[in-house]
Model the fold of this input.
Amino acid sequence: MTPRFIPAPPDGLQTFSLGPVTIHAYALCILAGIFVAVWLTTRRWVERGGDGDKVGDIVLWAIPFGIVGGRLYHVISTPGPYFGEGGDPWAALEIWNGGLGIWGAVALGALGAFIGARRHGVSFTAFADAAAPAVLIAQAIGRLGNYLNQELFGSPSTLPWALEVDPAFRPEGYAEFATFHPTFLYEMVWNLVGAALIIWLDRRFDLRGGRTFWLYVMVYVSGRLWIELVRIDTAVTVGGLRINVWVSIAVLALAVAMFMILGRRQPDAEHRVPRNRLAAADDDPTDSTDATAHPADEPEHDDPATSQGKS
Done:
């Protein structure tokens, strides 16, 4: 008889050994997400006239920054297991056991991409637009690691798609419950649908100048907002709500405002130069000069979305 729930992952999937090396499935999910994100970003970047090799150069900056930022945010927003009573501070370094806060990962990952773009003479704004849906897909793939680690699930549920959680992984006070909301699955589906929507909207409405990136933020945050209300894992709360709920509200408001502001700065569609000629050059979208004078791999000059980082 087919169980009316998602079974817990079999024993032995969380970690396995290849000779003397221990492989963590969570890390493999993160790596798989990065691989897919780099592939899709490169494809979108080349379609815009950019040099595909530059994507790898920028990613080499973005990935380590993103991992460090994600871990820092996780430890700060969930300090109990590390610095609370009975906590283990050294466990804060054990990233292979799970725990990456998306807000820190995106913030520092974007900083790393900004540095990489500047060093390699690439428009950061255009790169962020090309990478936006790819990042969402990477986040979806990474959520498989949460399933394998049996972590970050929601409140108890008896729905047909509820997730079975082994007793050893059930939070204190929930030992009598066997199945929970699979928030990892909710976020996976939301992210994949959101990525497809972003790609379609970008092609349909030409969302250049940073708007694709801020659309990604809106899509992700709106999903994360309601998913956070379902989760029961330990987290800092403010005013009775998880800190991530407040962060989601603030970031969503910022994303909507930025999307609208940047939209007003874009020229009418009939006056735009095709993106395969402009590529990543969002430096001056109203410039009517030959677009080939601003190739994807030359530094921007007056890009509103990146000029704030200039000194």
